[in-house]
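Worked Example 4.2. Consider the chain below.
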Amino acid sequence: MRKILFLDFDGVMVTDRYHEHLTAIGQSLRDNYGAKFDPVCVENLRHIIDSTDAGIVVTSTWKMTMGQDGIRQMWDDRHLPGKVIGVTPDIDPIHRGNEIDAWLDANPGTVRYAIIDDAPLVDFFNENQMEHLFRVNECTGIDEDTAQSVINHLCNR
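Applying the procedure from the previous section yields the following structure tokens:
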């Protein structure tokens, strides 16, 4: 069974906490690709990937400006964990659930998946996705508890 992680960036990998830290030490909030990812979130993502071997499908609006190839290049250049295997289609960024369903329909097979997002509204996602949704606080992004919950979900523990 393939394991897929649908991943948002802003509020999940890009956090208020890290940007406040960068500002406090006088470092840039951005690099050539955009806002810098919080290293704590990167390590928690690494733990998820190392524990599950899940492929990453990007749901972030970054896909609209960077495209799949640009995101993959950023992944390599930033030395981020795991492999980006795709991006969801640009259907309606306000209702990411429709984009996730479209990606799943276009990539048939047995899949166990998790969605990590900071979306404040439940209607961003479809009813059938609620059990797969792991909401994070935009200030802290992926924390240890979320990482462990996603691991347990993907490994069906």
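The CA atoms of residues 63 and 69 lie 9 Å apart. DSSP finds five helices and seven strands in the chain. Compare this with Example 4.1 before moving on.
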